[in-house]
Design brief:
- There is one protein chain.
- By secondary structure, the protein is an alpha/beta fold.
- The chain has a single domain, classed as Alpha/Beta hydrolase fold, catalytic domain (Rossmann fold, 3-Layer(aba) Sandwich).
- The protein is built from nine helices and 13 strands.
- Strands 1-2-4-3-5-8-9-12-13 form a nine-stranded mixed β-sheet, sandwiched between helices.
- It holds the Pfam family PAF-AH_p_II.
- This is Platelet-activating factor acetylhydrolase isoform II.
- One of its GO terms (biological process) is lipid catabolic process.
């Protein structure tokens, strides 16, 4: 089975028309999909793990599909990044969006003068580890669901971890990034993942040796950012240079990079106006399409998919790069 099994039949005319109109893309799916919410509880940690699944209805044990597990940025929820879930599932790729209750949308509620403090607390080591555990637990739940409705129709050889911002850090931890704290190594690797989508990854707080932190990462990755991809809160700033440093530090596996002109850090969320209304819409389509091209390269050996994508989107690209290896050849 090809990843994005009917991707060649995507309704290109709809996409181009929407782009020309400079409005958010709501392309008709090429594969029907369903949306299912789960309200799981990890009893061992006494922690809720809500999740939303975008599911290609054509999936079956005889026709298993790839699965992306997606981790939101700080202050997000399972409802976010819907443009990715809808696009991927409409192209035959299931997408499970995990909500992290210690760093989710609840941070925005309460006394507004306490927001910065709540954000800083949510960015601490304890929550970073808990987020990776959420991912592991949610994947377990889906693959072993009692009805076997979903798990039996997922291709276990095509599991992809993905995330934006804080979720990109969660992604890196889940695919092998290791941080040493007080002489102890924090290791959250989930070896079931065979590829990763990393969108706007911030640096690891208090760490400077990225090469050491990322030395154990051995799966293909794709990195997506923008020239104005900046995180800025009182006492903290992270820009494009940090995203590129993470890309450069990964040296043991094939990787791809896409940098869009302009934009913003939150442009990759479901927000419609940030980064420029016209660019925002284009970047959402381009990012969703880029991931599918990446999956083709990883799982089908179709490197040409990335080249075609680059040619299609060069007007809004500042940089695009593919460093191939055995899994992208």
């Amino acid at each position: 089975m090809r990843v994005g099994m009917t991707r060649r039949q995507v309704n290109t005319a709809l996409l181009l028309t929407a782009l020309a109109a400079s409005c958010p893309i709501q392309a008709q799916p090429t594969v029907p999909y369903s949306i299912t919410d789960f309200d799981w509880i990890d009893q061992t940690r006494d922690r809720s793990v809500p999740a939303r699944l975008y599911w290609p209805v054509v999936a079956s044990p005889d026709r298993p599909v790839p699965l992306v597990v997606f981790s939101h940025g700080i202050g997000g929820s399972r409802q976010g990044y819907s443009y990715l879930g809808k696009h991927w599932s409409s192209n035959g790729i299931a997408s499970l969006h995990v909500q992290h209750v210690g760093s989710d949308s609840a941070l925005w509620r309460g006394n507004p003068f306490g927001v910065v403090g709540r954000l800083q607390a949510a960015a601490q080591e304890k929550e970073a580890i808990a987020r990776a555990a959420d991912v592991h637990f949610a994947l377990d739940q889906l693959l072993t669901d009692e009805s076997n409705r979903f798990g039996a129709a997922v291709n276990p050889q095509r599991l992809i971890m993905a995330g934006h911002s804080y979720g990109a850090n969660t992604t890196l931890l889940s695919i092998g990034a290791q941080v040493v704290r007080n002489g102890q190594t924090i290791d959250c690797l989930d070896s079931r993942f065979s590829a990763a989508v990393i969108i706007s990854a911030p640096p690891f707080y208090g760490e400077s040796n990225l090469a050491a932190i990322l030395s154990k990462v051995s799966v293909p990755t794709i990195h997506v950012t923008a020239t104005d991809d900046v995180i800025e809160i009182p006492g903290y700033r992270s820009g494009l240079e940090d995203r590129l440093a993470i890309f450069d530090a990964l040296v043991h596996a094939p990787k791809m990079l896409a940098v869009f002109h302009g934009g913003s850090h939150s442009m990759f969320t479901d927000r419609s106006f940030t980064g420029g209304f016209s660019l925002n819409a284009k970047v959402k389509v381009a990012t969703a399409e880029l991931a599918v091209a990446f999956f083709d390269a990883v799982f089908e050996g179709d490197n040409a998919a990335f080249v075609r994508w680059e040619n299609d989107w060069y007007p809004i690209l500042a940089q695009a790069q593919m460093i191939s290896g055995p899994q992208l050849s």
